[in-house]
Write a structure and sequence with these properties.
26% strand; aminoacyl-trna synthetase; ATP binding; 18 strands; Alpha-Beta Plaits; 442 residues; alpha+beta; BirA Bifunctional Protein, domain 2; phenylalanine--tRNA ligase; seven-stranded mixed sheet
Length: 442
């Protein structure tokens, strides 16, 4: 079995100097993560604040709600899939979050121009390495090692807006289940997984297409439909274990580069439809490239934060990172299937400060990347930043200068912030914005 992705995470740190948020730091030759130095380049946009979260592994921390949901999901797959009394699914929940662009994109058939590759969406160490944007980044290597049924669980990193439901780090469960002909059609040996044009001795000798919304061109309709039925039954079973057997649900057709056909599962929860997961039939090119030429597979991915916040009525995603005993004690030594409703330890007021600035000539209100600004605010303000909202865009009618205004909402989860200390942090943010983006504060 390959050892490349089975090393445990270490506590990571970063050594940077004169970091620039809008572009790669020109004065920084390397980025240090743990005890390794990575060369930086024009793609480098990972920040010290983001690196400081690596190695926390909330999904493995006792008494953390993310860990409880993880255990419930693992238990479902362990109990639902067994062979001679042993679980058929293996679990990988401590894989290194630093991956190559090949793992994160190329191996999953994600096109070169796909928006998910953009620097505005991902945290790049350099042009060849990044913090994984999804646990699916490990799929091909695990398939190459000979695994057929496995769960991949860990932290993933995406640049995003700042509010109570979004954080640049969240946790995912991704899974793959593969089956050979004798497993899929154990009672109907005359049926086939692949259309007759497929040659097992030459897995790349066909051109697979996804033009048919029902199936991939290499698969028979019978194989696709049976895998679809299994996939939906298995995932619906998981949702009922988590949310109750009477939960309303619906399947929505979707597109993902690495599966076809693909769906999203939504449940009707608290008077609205909520997306739970994405899934589909794995593109056969991925399996063939990994050396699996005689199987068909399904895959799915879901976010632990979304599930935990819904199940336990947790109002703010930042609470997942809290070490406050008042929060963690509510999940301590509980039956993992117990119905738990989070009770606020106390409620602290918000402080709201606006920041307005004129953009330099090389930016416009349409080309300025808000995610760059959000990362800077988070790096300076830390975890007391509750939300950042784009409040106003303005183009001066005479000078044609472009201006943006953001509202920054500050709130500490464990004490009341004073306006004086918020103002001081706000001044630091203003200075950082001027230094890094060459803007003029209005």
């Amino acid at each position: 079995m390959t050892k490349l992705f089975l090393k445990p995470n270490r506590i990571y740190s970063i050594v940077l100097s004169k970091h620039k948020y809008s572009t790669a730091p020109k004065s920084v030759a390397t980025v240090r993560i743990g005890d390794k130095d990575y060369p930086s380049d024009e793609y480098t946009n990972v920040t010290p604040k983001i690196i400081s979260y690596l190695g926390r592994n909330l999904h493995l921390q006792r008494n953390n709600p993310l860990s409880i949901v993880r255990q419930r999901i693992v238990n479902y797959f362990y109990s639902s899939f067994t062979h001679r009394g042993n679980p058929t699914f293996s679990v990988y929940d401590n894989l290194s979050p630093i991956v190559t662009t090949k793992q994160n994109f190329d191996d999953l058939l994600i096109p070169a121009d796909h928006p998910s590759r953009a620097k505005s969406d991902c945290y790049y160490v350099n042009k060849d390495m990044l913090l994984r944007a999804h646990m699916t980044a490990h799929q091909s290597e695990l398939l190459k090692s000979g695994l057929d049924n496995f769960l991949m669980i860990g932290d993933v990193y995406r640049r995003d807006e700042i509010d109570s439901t979004h954080f640049p780090i969240f946790h995912q469960v991704d899974a793959v289940r593969s089956q050979r002909k004798d497993e899929l059609f154990h009672d109907k040996p005359d049926l086939e997984i692949f259309e007759p044009i497929f040659d097992p001795k030459n897995p790349h000798g066909f051109i697979n297409s996804i033009n048919d919304p029902m199936k991939q061109s290499c698969h028979t309709l019978e194989a696709t439909k049976l895998m679809e039925m299994q996939l939906k039954n298995h995932l619906l079973g998981l949702v009922k274990v988590l949310f109750g057997k009477d939960i309303k649900h619906r399947w929505v057709d979707e597109y993902f580069p690495f599966t076809h056909p693909s769906w999203e599962l939504e449940i009707y929860y608290e008077n609205k439809w909520m997306e739970i997961l994405g899934c589909g039939i794995v593109r056969n090119e991925i399996l063939a490239n990994a050396g699996s030429t005689n199987t068909i597979a399904y895959a799915f991915g879901l976010g632990l934060e979304r599930l935990a916040m819904a199940l336990y009525k947790i109002p703010d995603i930042r609470l997942m990172w809290s070490t406050d005993s008042g929060f963690l004690s509510q999940f301590e030594n509980k039956d993992i299937n117990a119905k738990i409703t989070y009770k606020p330890v106390s409620v602290f007021p918000q402080c709201v400060n606006d920041i307005s600035f004129w953009l330099p000539p090389n930016y416009t209100i349409d080309t300025f990347v808000s995610n760059d600004f959000y990362d800077l605010v988070r790096d300076v303000g830390g975890d007391i930043i509750e939300q950042v909202r784009l409040k106003d865009k303005f183009v001066h009618p005479k000078s044609k200068k472009h201006s943006l205004c953001y509202s920054i909402i500050y709130r500490h989860l464990e004490r009341t912030l004073t306006q004086v200390e918020v103002n001081e942090i706000h001044k630091q943010i203003e200075k950082a914005v001027v230094d890094n983006f060459n803007v003029t504060i209005r």
